[in-house]
Structure formats: C-alpha cells, structure tokens
C-alpha cells in the first residue's frame, strides 16, 4: 500500500507524490479510471466554485477551491507524464518562461506607457510565438475557446471583430444596464416558453456570424500576385 509523502517535503512535491500514488496500480480505483476527457467537466466546475468563493469573500473557501483547481492541473500533468508527454515540472517551467517572455517591461528593457501598451505587446509577442505553428492565428477572430458559454464567447468575438473592423451593423439597443438586463431576461424567458435552448440558439447564430466575418476578412486580403519568370511562353487559350 502506498505511503503518504513526508511532510518535510515542500507541499507542492507532496501533492505531486500523492497524485502519483493515487494513480499507482495499488492506488484509488476511481483515479485510475480517469483520463483527460473524463476530467474535462471537473475543471470547469472547480472554476465556478472558486468564483462563488471569491464573490462571497470567503478566504477559507477560496483557499480550498484554489486547491481543488490545482488538483486538476496536477491530475492532468500526471496523466501526461504516464504517457511520456510532459510532467508537472514541465508545465511550471513553460509557464515561467512564457510569463518572463511576455513581460519584457518587467524582465527586460522595454518601456511601456500604460496598460494598453502592455496588452499590445502581449498580443504581439503571442502572435510571434505561434507564427508558423499549427496554432498560428491567421484570423483576427482566432483564439476564442469554442467551449466558452455562448454569451461570453459572443462578447469576445464581438470585441475581436470590432478591432478588425468587422463590427456588425448597429441595431436598436436598450438604453442602459437595467434595460439590457431586462432584455436578456426576456429573451431567456421567450426561449423557455418556446422550448428552445438559448445556449444552442446563440451558438448557432455565432457560428453563422463568425463564418460571415471570416469570409469578409478573406475578401479584404490583398490578392497574391504570381510573377511569371522571364522567357516563359504564354499559355495558349486555343
């Protein structure tokens, strides 16, 4: 039977050791059955529980929920380590390197005037990092997670579309926050009465609009001019 790690170890090393023990052949049956896909919803749930604790101003609960969220990170890292992909130390090192690289105004000689320039530098560095890889962001709309809640995803896509000059045609809007809240609630009530899923409706509309924005984006791209080498005979149209 696995033994609990020594409390003389740093707490994070104890946590990594406990996770490895839970996944060991004589560990916990439930933990041994899990994989990356089976754990997906747990990470989302832990984030929402952390948000509840933050909004409640409950430090003890916040500490516990942060631990539960960290457990998801360590769990996924253990699964990846078992298949030789990466481990927890690799996750930490990659994060450290990224934070240092994307904060040249802190760890380098770059000077910034304010937060807007910090964000501009961050996006520029991120774009350069991903250039040429399968994660390269060729569209201004790239980088918005597909599994975000639909309303949150809509706002992020709208923000990116506006920055790219793809903002949709303006329509009549409620005057203020209260009127907007009422309108959102009324839309939810209308969907409920009709037996529709508001989430699915908005996701479908987002897919339609995003496709249209991407078509418009491609239409604006300058045409690629192909130069014909000198001496190349003209192709006959006969």
Task: Give the helix/strand layout.
Elements: H1 11-23, H2 29-33, H3 40-56, H4 59-82, H5 88-101, H6 104-107, H7 115-130, H8 150-163, H9 177-194, H10 198-220
Provide the gyration radius in Å: 25 Å
Main sheet record: none
Overall shape: extended
**What's the N-to-C terminus distance?**
83 Å
H-E string = HHHHHHHHHH
> What is the number of E strands?
0
Oligomer description: single chain
Average pLDDT score:
88
User: CATH topology of the domain at 11-85, anyone?
Assistant: Helix Hairpins
**Poorly predicted spans:** none
Write the CATH homologous superfamily of the domain at 11-85: MazG-like
> Treating each run of at least 4 consecutive H or I residues as one helix, how many helices?
10
| Helix content percent band | 55-70%
Beta-strand content? under 5%
Return the CATH architecture of the domain at 11-85.
Orthogonal Bundle
Pairing-aware structural class of the strands and helices? mainly alpha
The CATH class assignment of the domain at 11-85 is Mainly Alpha
């Amino acid at each position: 039977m696995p033994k609990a790690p020594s409390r003389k170890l740093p707490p994070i090393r104890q946590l990594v050791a406990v996770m490895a023990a839970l996944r060991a052949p004589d560990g916990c049956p439930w933990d041994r059955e899990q994989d990356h896909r089976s754990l997906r919803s747990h990470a989302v749930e832990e984030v929402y529980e952390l948000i509840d604790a933050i909004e409640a101003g409950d430090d003890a609960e916040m500490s516990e929920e942060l631990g539960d969220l960290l457990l998801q990170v360590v769990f996924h890292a253990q699964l990846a380590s078992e298949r030789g992909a990466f481990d927890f130390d690799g996750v930490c090192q990659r994060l450290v390197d990224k934070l240092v690289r994307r904060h040249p105004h802190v760890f380098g000689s770059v000077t910034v005037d304010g937060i807007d320039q910090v964000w501009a530098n961050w996006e520029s560095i991120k774009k350069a990092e991903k250039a040429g890889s399968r994660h390269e962001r060729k569209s201004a709309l790239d980088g918005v997670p597909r599994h975000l809640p639909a309303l949150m995803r809509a706002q992020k896509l709208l923000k990116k579309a506006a920055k790219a000059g793809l903002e949709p045609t303006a329509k009549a809007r409620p005057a203020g926050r209260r009127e907007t809240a009422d309108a959102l609630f009324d839309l939810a009530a209308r969907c409920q009465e009709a037996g529709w899923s508001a989430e699915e409706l908005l996701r479908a509309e987002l897919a339609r609009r995003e496709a249209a924005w991407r078509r418009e984006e491609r239409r604006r791209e300058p045409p690629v001019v192909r130069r014909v080498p000198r001496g190349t005979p003209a192709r006959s149209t006969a």
